[in-house]
Amino acid sequence: MGAVAGPEIERLVQLLARLPGLGPRSARRAALHLIKKREALMIPLSSAMQVALDKVQVCKTCGSIDTQNPCTVCIDPKRDPSIIVVVADVADLWALERANATQGRYHVLGATLSPLDGVGPQDLTIEALVARAHDAQVHEVILALNATVDGQTTAHYITDLLQDANVKVTRLAHGVPVGGELDYLDEGTLSAAMRQRTLF
Ligand code: ZN
What we know:
It is a single chain. By secondary structure, the chain is α/β, with parallel strands linked by helices. The protein has a domain at 65-171: Dna Topoisomerase Vi A Subunit, Chain: A, domain 2, CATH 3.40.1360. Helices cover 42% and strands 12% of the residues. The strands form two sheets. The chain has a four-stranded parallel β-sheet. Strand 1 (57-58) and strand 2 form a beta hairpin. Helix 1 crosses helix 2 (24-36). The longest helix has 18 residues, at 38-55.
């Protein structure tokens, strides 16, 4: 498709198309929507982005992203300081929060170990995690990592490093999703669910 508008609008479309979940067509639709809703949407969005740009920082305790440091979760007194939930990415932290899955605090690794992509332990915040796990008030480290080869490699690596910390290291159960039908599950999920069966 050739240009149907000036370079300024085409640039807006191209930038929007780089957002996750937006392809070229939906980016074009989003750009048009923004332009039509200039007062109600585009101006507030643009200033919200500017404010976020000025204020967003990485939490020096857990590695999450927030406009304050330490972040909102780290300073929340209702959070259980005895539990650290380890996630690869801030998106995973947000997903667990959406699900209201834990009252613990978090630790964001920044990625998972991936030897093929050249991601090693020094690229992750593992050292800081080990230091936090040695805090006397921490009793459990929950590894909430992806059920992928890289996620599980990372989980094993961290578990080894936490051997001499006085904490219980747990990981998420891998199994039949809520509402899931056995017939539709892949073999890996099904065999993991069988291995990790629980008493009824
Ligand atoms: Zn934090």
